Amino acid sequence: MILGDTCTRACGFCAVKTGRPTWFDDDEPRRVAEALASLDLEHVVITSVARDDLPDGGAGIFAETIRQVRARSAGMGVEVLIPDFNGTDAPLRTVMDARPDILNHNLETVERLQKPVRKRARYGRSLSVLERAKAYAVADGWTVHTKSSLMVGLGETRPELSQAFRDLRAVDCDILTIGQYLRPSLQHLELVRYYHPDEFAEMKAEALELGFRHVESGPLVRSSYHARDQVPGAELRRARRQATIDADGRIVPGGLLDQDALAG
Ligand code: SF4
């Protein structure tokens, strides 16, 4: 999570500290990228608190972090989970110009419950973030995969969830995660009910039927659950990353060189 630990919003379900942020460090992208390179990850999800106090909402730091990660870890899948930037175009373009593999922005809940669940957000605005992100990529001639997440158990109805699935597909959202809301404390929104694993399976089937490329749905699913496997071409990327060059300059897929070396 970049851009500090203090969020300018106060969503009713979220345990992140809220208030007036003081953190801003334009060297953060370099340090994040170095840390990620040393961890040698296959995929990273970069997110932030909402920074409505910054003129660009933190978009410049997002973009520079993506670029620095790319420069140091070429094979790493890069997903960003971004705020809505108050619906403005320029910050979203800034992030998209850095070309993340996955652009994630969470709808969080059904339309009727937006206000109690995340009072500073708007259902239509969040859909628009996903729609515009994809449009920018298409206009620039590259492919981004968009992603969103829904919590269940906040009092939504099943038809309302189906409508949210359809609304996400209407803006060509590719990936959906669905998980059970769990109340962080008694000061947070009440948990209305737990869903049975069979219900999560049924929602997954419905969402896949609507055309999502990838759906994770289960009680403990969160936005970054199995995120590595949602990157298009993840297998290929992994194979490339593990590939090595042999003595004759040929590319050897991961593992084979070690076996050859052992055999030799
Ligand atoms: S904007 Fe994000 S980090 Fe901030 S309170 Fe809402 S969910 Fe939490």
What does this structure look like?
This protein has 264 residues and is an alpha/beta fold. The chain folds into two domains: 28-232, Aldolase class I (TIM Barrel); 233-264, no CATH class. The protein has helices spanning 28-39, 59-72, 89-97, 114-117, 123-140, 158-170, 197-210, 234-242, 256-263, and strands at 43-47, 77-81, 102-104, 145-152, 175-180, 214-218, 244-245, 251-252. A six-stranded parallel β-sheet has the order 1-2-3-4-5-6. Strands 7-8 form a two-stranded antiparallel ribbon. Helix 2 links the parallel strand 1 and strand 2. Helix 6 (158-170) packs parallel to helix 7 (197-210). The longest helix is centred in the middle third of the chain and has 18 residues, at 123-140. It is globular, with a radius of gyration of 20 Å. The model is unreliable at 253-264 (pLDDT under 50). The site of iron/sulfur cluster has 11 residues, from loops.
Cα distance, first to last residue?
A: 45 Å
Content of β-strand: 5-15%
Calculate Rg over CA atoms: 20 Å
Order of helices and strands: HEHEHEHHEHEHEHEEH
The CATH architecture of the largest domain can be given as Alpha-Beta Barrel
| Portion of residues within helices | 25-40%
CATH superfamily of the largest domain: Aldolase class I
Quaternary state of this entry equals single chain
Bound molecules: iron/sulfur cluster
Kindly provide the name of the CATH class of the largest domain: Alpha Beta
pLDDT below 50 for ≥5 consecutive residues: which ranges?
A: 253-264
